[in-house]
Amino acid sequence: MITTLFIQDRNNLRGSSQSTSQIGSLEPFDSEKSKHIDLKQFNVKTHKGLVSMEELNENVFKKFGYEIIRPSSPVPTVRMLNEPTCDEVFSEWQRISEQPQPEFPPKEIPSERLDEFLLNNYTALNKWYINDKNSAKGEKPRNWDRLSELIKLPRTKLGGLAYGVDGVSMYDAMHFHRLDGKSGFVVGSMQPWVEVSALVHGASKVLTVEYNNLTIQEEFRDRMSSILPIDFVKNWKTYAGTFDFAASFSSIEHSGLGRYGDPIDPIGDFREMLKIKCMLKPGGLLFLGFPLGTDALQYNAHRIYGSIRLAMMFYGFEWLNTFSGQNEQPYDLTSERLHSRNLFGMVQNTIVLRKL
């Protein structure tokens, strides 16, 4: 059975949401116009080659609870057929997170779940196994006691602390979209360079949602705090709709792959996006950095996001711009640029989205 985000009453649609993922500044969704769009005329690059949007709409998007409403490029614009409520989103996440987990991250995708992980074989697969749950070599939090040093670092040093020029793209995005007086949260953070980048660009308060317990330098505890994901979820109503911005770099692409001891969940990343959407104020910004390329999964290391999966990730948001870290200004991420690398090739840029 294909996993969808029809969290309750999966077989009976409760009415179609009009919210969409919008690529750039587009006119409002018109259901009558969308019926007359010939999706056969528009193609998307996949590991299989060029595939028509009509084929993807029938074999992927509708199977996972979405449908194309506009053949935008490089990412189709979609809507959800049956959007779950925030209460359903967080309840289902908590249910999955509380299921018993194996001692070590699974080395193979369960055969009965391959279609879910690979979007019905429109996502390429190869193996790259990492145990960051209980391996002595697993990544651990660091530099949380050096915040007073980090906040003095220049652009390339702070932004490049963890991911080189790719990380600088987050710094540039926050410089372009200043955060003066705004409060936000960061999803997943081993080193606090994203949090410090937000403070440098005016943020008043930053909450980090992280599986590890963090010891924040005392002088910064009036501006920075942390919470475990399970506690964030259990208390979601306290936070819902209160944040001006959210940020995540090299985190969400791991959700549901088990690498960090998290539950195996083929749509774990979609769930994270819906959780973020629930937490943001209308018009709130999401600074999102993860691997971009042609749709692929290197199990269990990470996902690589191409035109297909991005469409579902962007649901409920407007795509404002993209930053590479090589230039302080945003650039145009065209289909050619998105798919310019060989299969499993990738770059981690920062995409800025605005909640609709």
UniProtKB/TrEMBL annotation:
A Pfam family matched in the record: DUF268
InterPro entries, sorted: DUF268_CAE_spp
State the superkingdom: Eukaryota
Write down the PANTHER family for this protein, in alphabetical order.
DUF268 DOMAIN-CONTAINING PROTEIN-RELATED, PROTEIN CBG18972
Q: Under which name does UniProt file this protein? A: DUF268 domain-containing protein
* Organism name: Caenorhabditis tropicalis
